[in-house]
Every structure is written in C-alpha cells, then in structure tokens.
Amino acid sequence: MDIEELQAYCLKKNDVEETFPFGDETLVYKTNGKIFLLISLNSNPLQFNAKCDPDKAIEWRERYSSVLPGYHMNKQHWNTVIIDGSLTKKQLCEMIDDSYGLVAKKARKK
C-alpha cells in the first residue's frame, strides 16, 4: 500500500476530512472533527498511527514487529504501523477500519 492508496482508502469513508494541523509533514484524517489516522509523510518506509482497542493493540504488537506503540500518542489506544510489506493490504485496511469505527462510534454517542 502506498500513500495514494492510503489516502484514497481513508477519503472514501463517510464524513472524512484530510488536514495538516501539525504541519506539512503529518497528514491527518478526521471524522466528525476527531482524528482516526495520522500519516508521516517523511518516513521511509511509510507509516501511520491508528486508534485501536487496547486489547487488540497489544495483540497486533505481539504478532507483528511492524506494529509499535503509537509514536507521540496514548500508547494504550494507538499503534504506529510501518508499511514494510510484512502486513497485507487487507490487514492494513482492517486497522484503518477499526480506527475509523472507534472514532466515528464515539462521535455518534456525543
């Protein structure tokens, strides 16, 4: 998955906006004003931060060396995912979907 595929995947979800609130090196995706994905544009290989259920976050980290505690984020609820080929596109999309779902669900409750 490259940056264009990642952007297209995020933007096809409902009520998503693409922003740069932290400068031009970090691409941020929000739904209902809440962040669900951050992409580091200067990282090589490409990487992103995704929100995750705490138990599932630990499970992903234990299974894959390319999934780390969220860089500059709450380590309990966020993972940093390095796109180095060790995870399938389906797995990457699952993480993005889970992150979007957690944030959208919380926004709907409020």
TrEMBL record:
Keywords: DNA-binding
Pfam families xrefs: YjbR (PF04237)
Keyword DNA-binding in record: yes
Keyword Acyltransferase part of the UniProt annotation: no
An example molecular function term from Gene Ontology annotations: DNA binding
InterPro entries: YjbR, YjbR-like_sf, YjbR/MT2646/Rv2570-like
Designated name of the protein: MmcQ/YjbR family DNA-binding protein
Organism: Pinibacter soli
